[in-house]
Amino acid sequence: MTRTLFSIFLLIPAVFSASSTIHKLSSFVNTVATPIPGVLDGSKIYLSSRDKAAYLGRITLTTQGASKTLLNLLNDFDDAGLPKGWTVNSDLTIATTNSEGLTKNLTGELLFVTPTMAKDPNFLVVPARSAMTLDRSTAKDTTIVFLAAHAQNADGVPDYAGFNHIRVENIAQPPGTTLSFYRYLPNDNYQDVTNLDTIQRRIFSNPLSYFVDGTMQSTFFTQIDPLQFSQSSVWFRGVGGFKLNVSDSYVDTSAIQTGAVTVTGMSNNQLGSVNSNVNFMSAGDNRMGTSGYVVTTELFGDSQLGLQLKGQGTLSSTVQVNGTTIGKQEAQNWPASSLQLMPSNAFIGIYYTQYFNTDNGPITTAVPSTASPAPSASSSAAPNPSSTTNNPGNPSSVSTTSSYQSTSPSVETTTKFASTSFIMLSVIATLLHNALNV
């Protein structure tokens, strides 16, 4: 009985969480119409490909008595310049007149989204080809699957760059909007932010919540550096309005210079793994703030990824991760000057790292005047600011609840201790005097 109930429990996600899937064109070598398994009635199909038009024109999809070539599917756009896709049923078949040798060299991919996604007018599929501006400023809810088309020409890019490039930049996000990027492909829980599977797929979020010295804080970043992905797909959720640019351009991320002092962004793996650096813009010395990262990994075997966060002077934090890591956080109560990512070898696997840095203003230390009386035990230093607006080198504002923990004792603290000790000695002397005169 227990085994039966356990089996039913395992089947529940499969029944209620249908998932989008990707199929490579190189796997469909049959010249006769062949069913594509796992297609649900009411699904929608999209194509991402840079294969030659002649080859795509020889591949035919058929469903419900209607047929369409992949070339027709690729070139069918709506008024906004987005692919329309094609609604299909479980009877979908595919056939090709290309030779088997030619088919095995095709690099395109078919994306199938579930009937739930197909019915959602705010669920978009965007192949990253050339550059496109997505303006969803008036939208309340948006889900996007970004698809990378295999890059045939690798001229001018390093060997470790790979062939799939998705670049998202110029993200305009007003306060009140939440943005998230996710790995893999979405399932039917894509709108449920509390679903465990959805949480484990998230690799980037703004606002970002993290722990500093055991205290949870949440920061909304107005500056998001360009995000570069080397996978064939990544998906995105926006709750509220936003605007962004997406393209298939490649920019080497082994050296990133942040665009502001208070900032967030990502440093992710490329096809090959190389030492990478994020250099944070500085507002000057002796500043308060926070810094850190959230890292998710799928590393091969004994491969490791080292992450070293450096601050002013000797401040530093080094962490080693291996295997599968989901949303591991590292946060410090000081602003960073750099973050270095150090893979143990050239091909360690996949990693996504969201970095962040905040500047909360100059460090303030209260120094009592020698002409004034010593402060009483109840006095306290002026509170540190918890937010900043228009910091030097950082025109953007940040809302945060962090506070700076100074490692150096202040003069005021020493004075308080001396004053308290004097009071205690006076009390003891009085008690002894009274005792002797009893």
If you had to describe this structure to a student in words, what would you say it looks like?
The protein is mainly β. The chain folds into 2 domains: 17-118, Jelly Rolls (Sandwich), CATH 2.60.120; 120-365 and 383-431, Spermadhesin, CUB domain (Jelly Rolls), CATH 2.60.120. It is built from 7 helices and 30 strands. The protein has helices at residues 2-16, 53-56, 70-74, 100-103, 115-119, 196-201, 411-436, and strands at 21-24, 34-35, 43-48, 59-63, 66-69, 86-88, 93-96, 109-113, 123-128, 131-136, 141-148, 166-172, 178-182, 202-206, 208-212, 215-221, 227-229, 233-239, 242-247, 255-257, 263-266, 276-279, 287-299, 304-311, 316-322, 324-332, 336-343, 349-362, 387-388, 398-399. The strands form 7 sheets. A 5-stranded mixed β-sheet has the order 9-11-18-13-14. A 5-stranded mixed β-sheet has the order 20-22-27-24-25, with no helix packed on it. Strands 1-8-3-6 form a 4-stranded antiparallel β-sheet. A hairpin with a 4-residue loop joins strand 24 and strand 25 (316-322). The model is unreliable at 1-15 and 369-438 (pLDDT under 50).
SSE blueprint and pairings:
Elements: H1 2-16, E1 21-24, E2 34-35, E3 43-48, H2 53-56, E4 59-63, E5 66-69, H3 70-74, E6 86-88, E7 93-96, H4 100-103, E8 109-113, H5 115-119, E9 123-128, E10 131-136, E11 141-148, E12 166-172, E13 178-182, H6 196-201, E14 202-206, E15 208-212, E16 215-221, E17 227-229, E18 233-239, E19 242-247, E20 255-257, E21 263-266, E22 276-279, E23 287-299, E24 304-311, E25 316-322, E26 324-332, E27 336-343, E28 349-362, E29 387-388, E30 398-399, H7 411-436
Parallel strand pairs: 9-11, 20-22
Antiparallel strand pairs: 1-8, 2-7, 3-6, 3-8, 4-5, 4-7, 10-19, 11-18, 12-17, 12-19, 13-14, 13-18, 15-16, 16-30, 21-28, 22-27, 23-26, 23-28, 24-25, 24-27, 29-30
